[in-house]
């Protein structure tokens, strides 16, 4: 797929399709548990296809399981039948640990399962782009070291932080290249931990490494969608735009009305109906109202794509998801 043309058409079109980060709720359609899903490429593809059949999404997005990359490095992961896996503890603590840390191959952990799932999904979904989910460099480093410790490390031992980020970035590029080789049309690069950084630290410890990923992978047939759901993204946006990603996706920790003036008219931005508050725990009425409020602020922008604020939880209520899509359709009709 010519993704440059796809992006250009999105910018020109007055009527926008929604691009929620919507994949895990498909377990409810196919009758499987999250634990079964994250271990089986065929089930992941089936889950993506079930969502694509049910909703007119702008693109099909794979599972946003941000434990995969850390697990490949050797991190311990906590699994659950109905919740997304989470990383437990840390595997590096000292500069010596970081120096000895090896960048894993794609035969480690569940990386090969997720890459195979994209290949299978591309065989089943031909009417829209297929995007794979990948963690961002700073967010991966935080899982390997511990989020509190990586913040301290940036201040007290910046050389250690940079060395860890270099290794995290090397693996992310390798993993994303696996998705690209499998036929993915792009990735959603989730860098939520960077949203906790000051603008200066974000510019030093996240942006250059995200740019490495973008520069290594993005071309006419493959795009990078940058995601950050942190509370300081408005203050960081000037540097974030230097990553060169083709689309920027923001979480509901910020008001997109505040972000809008900072986004150039030729740059796509997206977000940000609250995943837990609305899609999981809201009502159809509250989800519709939240979507309408968002569209009232950003819908007139030709470069805006309506979305969820982050990954929609597995047990989200379909009546709320229905209300979101109905509100988007009604706004653009």
UniProtKB/TrEMBL annotation:
GO terms for molecular function: uroporphyrinogen decarboxylase activity. Coiled coil: none annotated. SUPFAM superfamilies: UROD/MetE-like (SSF51726). Residues 29-331 form the Uroporphyrinogen decarboxylase (URO-D) domain. InterPro entries: Methanogen_methyltrans (IPR052024), UROD/MetE-like_sf (IPR038071), Uroporphyrinogen_deCOase (IPR000257). It holds the Pfam family URO-D. It comes from the Bacteria. One of its GO terms (biological process) is porphyrin-containing compound biosynthetic process. This is Uroporphyrinogen decarboxylase family protein. It comes from Candidatus Avimonoglobus intestinipullorum. The lineage of its organism: Bacteria, Bacillati, Bacillota, Clostridia, Eubacteriales.
């Amino acid at each position: 797929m010519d993704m440059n043309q796809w992006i250009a058409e999105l910018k020109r079109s007055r009527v926008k399709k929604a691009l929620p980060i919507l994949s895990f709720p498909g377990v409810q359609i196919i009758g499987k548990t999250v634990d079964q899903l994250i271990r089986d490429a065929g089930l992941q593809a089936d889950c993506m296809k079930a969502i694509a059949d049910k909703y007119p999404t702008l693109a099909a997005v794979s599972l946003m399981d941000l434990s995969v990359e850390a697990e490949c490095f050797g991190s311990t992961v906590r699994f659950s039948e109905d919740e997304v896996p989470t990383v437990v503890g840390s595997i590096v603590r000292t500069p010596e640990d970081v120096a000895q840390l090896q960048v894993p191959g794609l035969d480690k952990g569940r990386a090969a399962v997720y890459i195979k799932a994209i290949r299978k999904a591309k065989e089943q979904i031909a009417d829209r782009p297929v995007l794979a989910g990948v963690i961002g460099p700073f967010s991966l480093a935080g899982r390997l070291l511990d989020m509190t410790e990586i913040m301290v490390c940036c201040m007290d031992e910046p050389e250690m932080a940079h060395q860890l980020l270099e290794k995290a970035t090397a693996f992310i590029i390798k993993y994303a290249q696996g998705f690209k080789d499998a036929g993915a049309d792009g990735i959603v690069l989730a860098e939520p931990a960077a949203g906790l950084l000051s603008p200066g630290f974000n510019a030093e410890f996240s942006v250059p490494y995200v740019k490495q990923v973008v520069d290594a992978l993005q071309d006419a047939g493959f795009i990078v969608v940058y995601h950050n759901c942190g509370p300081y993204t408005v203050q960081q946006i000037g540097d974030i735009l230097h990553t060169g990603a083709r689309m920027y996706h923001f979480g509901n920790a910020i008001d997109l009305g505040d972000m809008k003036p900072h986004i150039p008219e030729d740059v796509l931005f997206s977000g940000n109906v609250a995943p837990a508050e609305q899609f999981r725990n809201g009502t159809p009425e509250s989800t519709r109202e939240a979507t309408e409020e968002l569209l009232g602020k950003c819908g007139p922008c030709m470069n805006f794509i309506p979305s969820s604020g982050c990954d929609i939880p597995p047990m989200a209520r379909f009546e709320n998801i229905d209300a979101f899509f109905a509100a988007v359709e009604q706004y653009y009709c």
